Amino acid sequence: MNSYAALLRGIMPSNPNMRNEKLRGVFEGLGFDRVATLLSSGNVVFRCADSDEAELEDRIQEALNRELGIAGGTIVRGHEDLRALIDRDPFAGRTHERGTYLTVTFFKDRHPEVATPEAADELTEIIGYDAEARAFLTVIDNSTPRTPDFMAWLDKTYGKDITTRTWLTIQKVVKKLEA
């Protein structure tokens, strides 16, 4: 059995169709094993015999749309890939804390044409693009209620086929996959 994390875009726990128990139900209905949700922001871990992540993304997204009306994006990453990202320690020496968020923006595309802006806004430090994880790594100044321009740039440049998680969330997902 392979272990995966599905990172769902646009999940709002206030929407009754987006609650964890309903999300788990969709994944269980697809025949996946050891389905569990993490936090209330669209992180679902599961096991299955399938090994094609793109096919899993499509199957999951179709089921979410059909059964719960969730049209957002689904990005799947295997346990080994997420574990390898953590082991590379891309944020070495930095701490995720109240005013400084370490973030990972995952791309659905298998071979994205990645453009890095000349300079991020004053609220964002770009650590870089991790090709193995297909993810941008950034440090966000979260001490202000303003949304960083970089996040808007990501959405404008790459559309809905991306999703962002904090580094702490990625660590929690991997821990859940290893439980």
Descriptive tags:
179 residues, Alpha-Beta Plaits, four-stranded antiparallel β-sheet, 5 helices, globular
The largest sheet is: 4 strands, antiparallel
> What string, H for helix and E for strand, traces the elements in order?
EHEEHEHEEEHEH
What does the overall shape look like? globular
Strand content range:
25-35%
Q: Note the total helix count.
A: 5
What is the number of domains? Answer: 2
Ends: how far apart?
A: 14 Å
Mean pLDDT: 91
Helicity range: 25-40%
Give unreliable regions as ranges. Answer: none
C-alpha Rg, in Å?
16 Å
Structure class: alpha+beta
Count of DSSP strands: 8
Query: How do the strands of the widest beta sheet line up side by side?
Result: 2-3-1-4
Could you characterize the architecture of this molecule?
The protein is an alpha+beta fold and 179 residues long. The protein has two domains: 2-80, Alpha-Beta Plaits (2-Layer Sandwich), CATH 3.30.70; 82-166. Helix content is 32%, strand content 28%. The protein is built from five helices and eight strands; from the N terminus they run E-H-E-E-H-E-H-E-E-E-H-E-H. The strands form two sheets. A four-stranded antiparallel sheet has the order 2-3-1-4, sandwiched between helices. Strands 6-7-5-8 form a four-stranded antiparallel sheet. The longest helix is centred in the middle third of the chain and has 16 residues, at 53-68. It comes from Nocardia bovistercoris. This is DUF1697 domain-containing protein.
